């Protein structure tokens, strides 16, 4: 359709809002990013299919609408960027958002230039945008794939930080293209001006909002609602004011305001976050519909093999390279590195900012054409097509394949571990956590002493700071999803309380406790908690070294060269078969030592017949035991 009149604009806006809400509902239902449904809806309504929406549907207001939408999206991302979390993040996470981002930026720019023949400036504009992954596409994946906390934290932090930095860098490159800046000095000056204006305006707005939220009476009855509206208005004002002072400085301003306000101790923070999330949902609809309206299948097809080469390079070469470089020397396993490499879908920021830039490119091209500068206008139109086509192709491909197949990728790479909560980050807790982590489990330590917390984090452990005897702390650390809870502090009263809370408030498969005083073992076991008394365990270990030195030496290697694992029989091909028949099919470096059935555990004879649900103990070389586990319990 052509331009929409005022009568047609109201149902159009209502339809787009409805699409956004439905897309979010479908996203929650199927656990995939809402980007998939928004893009599909945009294509359907766009000029290439039904033709209900076109670039002219909103008249001259489209750029303003998309610009304000981008401001809200960037502000929300910046609001969730916590500086203290960045300080606590492992070195690998910091490298992901620095070294990794540079590799993505440069690598993508080079590939776009040589594969598509795009000008260098446009190539690096695309490169800057495709640095961003974003929490809106990562969060649904992490809900479906319960990976280790260190993996989830790294992916989540990367998405939040790169959303903001990618948008700011892209703005500078875009402005350089529009103003024809090419020299390095001029580019640095342009960057400093836009960033400087944005930081100053954003800081002023953030300071004003902080003062208003802290010290101004917002009407006690409606204070949360007024606080939400005030923050929304502040985000839009910071964008508009900075953009008025210096073109395209608005994104830096909303990013600055969001970061400063998000890291300040402001009242009604939860209400503000929830409200901004709802508003973002609505504006995302406009952004993706606008992107689809700008998309021409002919331009997309014109990318040809070059476009496919860009997608393959971004997903299969550049992403794995930056992940492996960033995580070198850290505690990430090879499987986790590959998972992070193959699960990095692009989403909100690339789409929204690319849409804003493409609209500006085409408006500038129209102006140049009217002035008789047809060649320059053609270059800008071609740049807009490359920008939209490439960004759209990468988003659609990575979301469909990487987000859609994330669960299957995780299962193939075996990166979904058992979740274990260890309360107490002292020497006992850390030693246990290290053994479990070496075996591939997802271990979270809970510790109240800040000095101990820092020590454990420096050793590479995931640590939740707080009182492990507090239900809210346990829940925030992931007790709802924990299979095992271990109370390992040096205080028996704390361990007893933790055991009671775990049993009554959560539903772990097992609760284990450390008893520092052997006289307290009975109190623990009355709760059904398996308890290890430190003094008794030490005496038993010493006795084993005296009477059974060979076995004790071998047990000391468990988790390194040797291993012992208890696993449930679920493989149909093993049910009804004897140990004699199954034994030759196991790896040569391991054997079945024990079988537990209905609470009774025995050393099985060769003619013992396995049943589904039996729990067998496998002993042997570490890698062979791991292989045997998958053979016995393939699910």
UniProtKB/TrEMBL annotation:
Q: What role is this protein assigned?
A: Part of a potassium transport system.
Q: Which organism is it from?
A: Haloferax marinum
Which stretches are annotated as coiled coil?
none
Q: Does the keyword Secreted apply?
A: no
Keywords noted in UniProt: Antiport, Cell membrane, Ion transport, Membrane, NAD, Potassium, Potassium transport, Transmembrane, Transmembrane helix, Transport
Q: Where in the cell is it found?
A: Cell membrane
User: Any idea which GO molecular function terms this record carries?
Assistant: antiporter activity; potassium ion transmembrane transporter activity
Q: Where is the RCK N-terminal domain?
A: 417-538
Pfam families reported for this sequence: Na_H_Exchanger, TrkA_C, TrkA_N
Q: Entry's InterPro entries?
A: Cation/H_exchanger_TM, K_uptake_TrkA, Na+/solute_symporter_sf, NAD(P)-bd_dom_sf, RCK_C, RCK_C_sf, RCK_N
**A GO BP entry:** proton transmembrane transport
Q: Where are the transmembrane segments?
A: 6-23, 35-55, 61-81, 93-116, 122-142, 195-216, 236-262, 274-295, 301-326, 338-361, 383-401
What region holds the RCK C-terminal domain? Answer: 552-634
Membrane topology classification: Multi-pass membrane protein
Q: What is its main location?
A: membrane
> Would you tell me the Gene Ontology cellular component terms?
plasma membrane
Q: What is this protein called?
A: NAD-dependent epimerase/dehydratase family protein
């Amino acid at each position: 359709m052509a331009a929409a009149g005022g009568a047609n604009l109201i149902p159009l806006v209502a339809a787009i809002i409805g699409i956004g809400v439905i897309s979010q509902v479908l996203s929650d239902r199927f656990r995939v990013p809402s980007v998939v449904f928004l893009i599909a809806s945009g294509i359907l309504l766009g000029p290439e299919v039904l033709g209900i929406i076109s670039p002219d549907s909103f008249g001259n207001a489209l750029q303003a609408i998309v610009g304000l939408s981008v401001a809200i999206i960037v502000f929300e991302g910046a609001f969730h960027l916590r500086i203290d979390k960045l300080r606590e993040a492992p070195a690998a996470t910091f490298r992901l958002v620095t070294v990794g981002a540079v590799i993505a930026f440069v690598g993508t720019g080079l590939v776009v230039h040589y594969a598509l023949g795009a000008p260098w400036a446009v190539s690096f504009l695309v490169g800057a945008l495709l640095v961003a992954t974003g929490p809106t596409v990562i969060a649904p994946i992490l809900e479906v794939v319960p990976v280790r906390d260190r993996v989830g934290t790294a992916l989540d932090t990367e998405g939040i930080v790169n959303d903001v930095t990618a948008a700011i860098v892209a703005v500078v490159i875009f402005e350089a293209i529009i103003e024809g800046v090419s020299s390095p000095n001029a580019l640095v000056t342009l960057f400093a001006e836009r960033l400087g204006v944005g930081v100053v305006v954003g800081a002023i707005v953030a300071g004003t909002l902080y003062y208003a939220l802290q010290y101004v009476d917002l009407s006690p009855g409606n204070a949360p609602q007024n606080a939400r509206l005030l923050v929304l208005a502040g985000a839009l004002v910071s964008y508009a004011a900075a953009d008025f002072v210096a073109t395209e400085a608005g994104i830096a301003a909303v990013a600055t305001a969001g970061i400063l306000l998000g890291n300040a101790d402001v009242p009604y923070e939860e209400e503000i976050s929830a409200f901004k999330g709802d508003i973002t949902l609505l504006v995302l609809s406009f952004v993706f519909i606008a992107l689809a309206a700008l998309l021409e299948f002919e331009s997309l097809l014109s990318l040809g093999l070059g476009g496919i080469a860009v997608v393959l390079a971004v997903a299969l070469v550049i992403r794995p390279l930056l992940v492996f470089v960033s995580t070198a020397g850290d505690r990430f396993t090879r499987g986790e590195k590959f998972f992070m490499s193959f699960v990095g879908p692009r989403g909100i920021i690339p789409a929204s900012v690319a849409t804003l830039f493409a609209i500006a490119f085409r408006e500038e091209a129209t102006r140049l054409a009217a002035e008789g500068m047809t060649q320059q206008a053609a270059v800008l139109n071609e740049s807009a097509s490359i920008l939209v086509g490439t960004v759209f192709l990468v988003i659609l491909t990575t979301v469909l394949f990487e987000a859609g197949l994330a669960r299957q990728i995780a299962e193939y790479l075996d990166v979904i571990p058992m979740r274990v909560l260890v309360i107490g980050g002292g020497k006992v807790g850390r030693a246990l956590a290290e053994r479990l982590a070496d075996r591939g489990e997802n271990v979270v330590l809970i510790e109240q002493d800040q000095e101990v917390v820092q020590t454990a984090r420096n050793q590479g452990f995931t640590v939740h700071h707080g009182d492990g005897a507090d239900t809210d702390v346990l829940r925030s650390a992931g007790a709802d999803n924990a299979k095992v809870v271990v109370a390992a502090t040096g205080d028996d009263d704390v361990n007893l309380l933790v055991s009671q809370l775990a049993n009554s408030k959560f539903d772990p498969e097992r609760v284990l406790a450390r008893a520092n005083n052997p006289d307290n073992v009975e109190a623990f076991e009355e709760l059904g908690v398996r308890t290890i008394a430190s003094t008794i365990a030490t005496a038993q270990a010493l006795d084993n070294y005296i009477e059974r030195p060979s076995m004790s030496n071998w047990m000391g290697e468990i988790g390194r060269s040797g291993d012992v694992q208890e696993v449930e029989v679920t493989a149909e091909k093993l049910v009804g078969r004897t140990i004699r028949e199954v034994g030759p099919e196991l790896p040569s470096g391991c054997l079945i030592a024990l079988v537990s059935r209905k609470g009774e555990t025995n050393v099985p004879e060769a003619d013992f017949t396995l049943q589904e649900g039996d729990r067998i103990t496998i002993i042997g070389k570490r890698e062979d035991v791991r292989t045997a586990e998958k053979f016995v319990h393939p699910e």
